[in-house]
Amino acid sequence: MKFIIAIIKPFKLDEVRQALSAIGIAGMTVTEVKGFGRQKGQTEIYRGAEYSTNMLPKVKLEIAANDEIAGQVVETIQQTANTGSIGDGKIFVLDLASATRIRTGEAGETAL
Fold first, then answer.
1. Are 26 and 87 in contact (CB under 8 A)?
2. DSSP string covering 45-108, please?
3. DSSP class of 10
4. How confident is the model over 40-54, as pLDDT tens digits?
5. Interior CA angle at 106 toward 103 and 110, to 5°?
6. Predicted model pTM
7. What spatial distance separates the first Cα and last Cα of the chain, rounded to whole Å?
8. 37-41-43 Cα angle (round to 5)
């Protein structure tokens, strides 16, 4: 099993969610986060004053997937979240040792 973490632009969330549903992903965790990378923040104007923000709003997706579909999940996120501009985000893939469904006690891939 794999644990996939993706950091994407917030306006791409619905499009990515629909694309993942189409390939059979039944659930994910979504968190609103802030961060920066090569983008180094941005300059904005608020009430006529220019100020610099060094943390940009992003969305963090967490998905547990079986090994057979993990590559397709990564590819789907990469293609769907891509705008071609700096700050599109990152995808991390980690090995997932175990998963347990709390309600039924199912373990392993059946818990996904």
1. no
2. EETTEEEEES-EEEEEEEEEE-HHHHHHHHHHHHHHH--SSTT-EEEEEEE----B-TTT--BG
3. G
4. 656 655 566 656 667
5. 120
6. 0.86
7. 9
8. 160
